[in-house]
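Run: sequence + alpha-D-glucopyranose -> complex structure.
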Amino acid sequence: MMNAIAFLGNSTMRPSKCILRAFSRLSPSRDAAFQPHPSRFINHNINNQDPYRITKLRNVVPFCTNKPSSVTTQVASEARNLSASKTCTKDTTLDQVIIPKNGFNVKPLTVERLEEDEKDEEVVNGDVRNIDKDGLESVRRKEIEEEAWRLLRQSVVTYCDSPVGTMAANDPTDATPLNYDQVFVRDFVPSALAFLMKGESEIVRNFLLYTLQLQSWEKTVDCYSPGQGLMPASFKVRISPLEEDKFEEVLDPDFGESAIGRVAPVDSGLWWIILLRAYGKITGDYSLQERVDVQTGIKMIANLCLADGFDMFPTLLVTDGSCMIDRRMGIHGHPLEIQALFYSALRSSREMITINDSSKNLVRTINNRLSAISFHIRENYWVDKCKINEIYRYKTEEYSTDATNKFNIYPDQVSPWLMDWIPESRRCGFLVGNLQPAHMDFRFFTLGNLWSVISSLGTPRQNQAILNLIEEKWDDLIGHMPLKICFPALESAEWHIITGSDPKNTPWSYHNGGSWPTLLWQFTLACMKMGRPELAEKAVALAEKRLQADRWPEYYDTRYGKFIGKKSRLYQTWTIAGFLTAKQLLQNPEMASSLFWEEDLELLETCVCVLSKSGRKSCSRAAAKSQILI
Ligand code: GLC
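>> structure
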């Protein structure tokens, strides 16, 4: 059923039409990836054991030109001939297929699925007894969950009749969906976990394999191609007419070249790796991550992130808007969210990369980087009341290798909101949003802090203190709807200068202090890791009261998350999936525990050993242990 696939065409100038038809991704090496010979296709047809094996044809035009090279043209035409017989065509007379406004096929709920939902009922009822503290009837609770599942299934996007992802939002009344009808890599993660925990892994496997094929499709912005290994922010299944009433489906990725602001999706590849690990952990099917093409995909992402640059820090240097906050919000440099995802992705890669002669250097590099990142973040991003007091009294302009104020932070950056806000107790603290020379962004960014807990980027004490802070600052960070994307909002001149007067990111709206229910699943995972499920249950119960009535909004506005966001999409898939995933995690602590990471003493040991070379610390496991207790 699934087509073999090929990427064709001169991507350098043409607006990136990739035609997915006939493929195998055989070569792990960057340059060997292009073999301009049609035998690749023939070969594939003969060895047609796995429908997902893909050959990606790389554009060989050396610089920006309108003319396709003769090689490209030749391969393209060969491929077209060969693939014509395999084109995925739509038979519109099939009465089981519903075509919604955006043209995606949505499979109707099947009998098997209803049966599975019935099985779920017992679990739901069991759960209801536990958390029925807020007056919601158990029947209501079940109805809400059922609606969420129905909506999640309706958001499924198919490619050649196979499910490949979920669209970002699926509001039938929205006449201008912009790119919300696309499958976003980051948005799909909670959908994937919800499906995996329900025992439905096909969609996740398809997603992982198809996005892998999109990975290095060369898209350009002003004659410049982003680095090899970059994963798209999103993709769309376009339907183009063939002859008569036949259609062809085409997978079309967006690497930021169409995105508002042309932002680079740095987090996509990191999420892809994290999801690949989760797929293995939950299904027990490790054969997917062992495949040569999948191994190559992991390595390409890792290599892209680990490439040398001019940076002085082990953290990843990125532009503004390179993650969930995909607009200008003053998070260029070394934002915590990216660092925590980077750390999680490296920890995942380390578990998944098959060790052999060709991979051992990469694994060594990963281990060293992991140690360096955790040391850097634990030491330099952490603040609690005492640390803030220390910064407040910092000496500046210290020229020496052992300066206390290494980044030359001027004490005036400790703003009044922070001095008021930080709890007295040393049991509370958090990791700051960003750190650069003479710049410490003290805003609290929720996703980065949660993933630091989940991945053990923070020390055990720091991780506990982050949850203590969220509990202590419940009204500010959770309020009427979990959870604030960041705190506090940028206001007045800061809003003008830092957001560029962005009308969507006005104070306490959207990325600028809005409340995003999708963060609920990651909060739940962090709480479960730290043995505090009751905190997550409280937040889930709060969301449950409003989400369905409010039609599953993308985000909420105001200081305490009281109103549905000004420009918020409705029926936002990751809101729905985040809610379902949070509930499933609470019901399945064992599955939850397979998704987070405990402290890794070996990594700390590497770090302490590296420090000892510079004469600063002794090298031993005991020293490593003391390091983790900072
Ligand atoms: C917005 C969000 C981004 C999300 C996308 C699709 O652009 O900022 O994080 O992935 O919408 O939902």
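>> summary
The chain has one domain: 146-611+619-626. The chain is about 45% helix and 10% strand.
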